[in-house]
Write a structure and sequence with these properties.
This protein has 196 residues and is an alpha/beta fold. The protein contains seven helices and six strands. The longest helix is centred in the N-terminal third of the chain and has 62 residues, at 2-63.
Length: 196
């Protein structure tokens, strides 16, 4: 009798434990779903914040162009995009003109040294620079040069991914990073030699 009662109590305890475990499994499942949603929301917030920082940096580079580029250029200002695109449509395909129009910032200035010719800086700007920014800046500067505007590609940001410096060196792209300049001489010399 006591043995039977003990077995029944054990069965009841096991059934109760099973229900508790099922409840815990469901709670863990809900926590995992919540975590996935929270991570997705966080990623969207992080992406949006990156966009806002990028826009702020674009304005920073335009507003304080002399602070960043004055060592190499004078009379620095935003380029007249209407003039650029009017000329570009005569020499580039519509797809290429659209790509060029997506450049974050195009500045225009006169070289301080050498022949003092007018040159354009085609900028891609991001809070954290990556290799894609370097590739876009290079491609868009090539397009602008083909359209008849001697151009130097530049990427600008607050920090950069590990491979950016090597990629920029390989593609002759200058880097403006958190107030400092890298690769300017090589980018200017190689790019302007290409467009002479």
């Amino acid at each position: 009798n006591g043995l039977i009662r003990g077995q029944e109590e054990l069965r009841a305890s096991v059934a109760e434990l099973r229900q508790t475990m099922e409840g815990l499994a469901k709670a863990v499942e809900r926590l995992i779903e919540w975590q996935v949603l929270a991570e997705q929301r966080f990623q969207r917030i992080e992406d949006r914040l990156g966009q806002l920082i990028g826009w702020r940096l674009e304005e920073e580079y335009a507003k304080h162009a002399y602070a960043y580029f004055g060592t190499y250029l004078r009379k620095i200002r935003r380029a007249d995009l209407e003039e650029i695109f009017e000329k570009a449509t005569q020499k580039l395909s519509l797809t290429e003109v659209k790509d060029l129009s997506r450049a974050d910032l195009i500045l225009k200035g006169q070289l301080r040294f050498a022949d003092q010719r007018e040159v354009y800086l085609v900028m891609e700007v991001a809070a954290t620079l990556d290799v894609n920014d370097v590739t876009r800046a290079s491609r868009r500067a090539d397009l602008l040069s083909r359209a008849g505007f001697p151009s130097i590609p530049v990427v600008g940001g607050e920090k950069m991914a590990a491979a950016v410096e090597d990629s920029a060196r390989e593609l002759d792209v200058a880097i403006a990073l958190d107030g400092g300049l890298m690769g300017w001489e090589a980018a200017f010399q190689k790019r302007l030699k290409m467009t002479s």
